[in-house]
Amino acid sequence: MMVFGHNMRSRIPIHHSTFKPQWISMSDAIDKKYEVNEKTEKYYNRNAHNLTPIPVQTEVRLQDPKNKLWELTGTVVGVGRNRDYRIKVKSGRTLWRNRRFLRVTGDTGEDDVIDIDRAHEILEHDDEENQVKEDQPAVFRSALRRSPRLEQKKKQVKFLVMDK
Which of 36, 97, 122, 143 is the most exposed place for a label (fewest CB within 10 A)? Predict the structure, then answer.
């Protein structure tokens, strides 16, 4: 211990360099490092939220790691320790996926198959009225939206014909 600027003489076995000023500045630097780490963690997690756990036997969609589309569907057959789930896909394979790359669908996947004649009917009918009907499947409602900019570009194109 230090009293009046110098070490006390005692029987406690402490090295004489223990109370040098360099150690005090080093402990201040360590405290500053912890404060910076806490601030960084606070900013990193400010918009983060916890994902709800998925129970076993739940239908889910899996994000394809290559093209980032939610194409595969499967059933949860096991739960791991760190937000990872064992998914059995329709082909029979089982995959481990993190919770971040799973979405609960709640359906059996049978609604994905739509009669092609019905689909063409809906598309033709929609082109005539240029409105989206409420009874259409969500797949067609999202596919029929068109940007008004495309129509403007089509109208702006003019051809100039010159005679020789």
Answer: 36
CA 150, distance to chain mean position in Å, is 31
Question: Which residue blocks in the chain are alpha helix, DSSP H?
Answer: 21-44, 116-129, 138-143, 148-156
Distances (CA, A) of 80 to 84, 96, 162: 5, 9, 72
Q: What is the pLDDT of residues 44-93, one digit of tens each?
A: 989 888 889 999 999 999 998 899 999 889 999 999 988 899 999 999 99
Could you tell me which residues come within 8 angstroms of residue 148 by beta carbon, excluding any fewer than 6 positions away?
none
Q: Which long-range contacts (CB under 8 A, 24 or more apart) does 55-62 make?
A: 58/104, 59/104, 59/105, 59/106, 59/107, 59/108, 59/109, 60/85, 60/87, 60/102, 60/103, 60/104, 60/105, 61/102, 61/103, 61/105, 62/87, 62/89, 62/95, 62/97, 62/101, 62/102
What H or E segment, with its residue span, contains residue 77? strand 72-79
State pTM to two decimals. Answer: 0.44
Strand pairing class (72-79; 59-62) = antiparallel
| Alpha carbons 84 and 47: distance in angstroms, whole number | 22
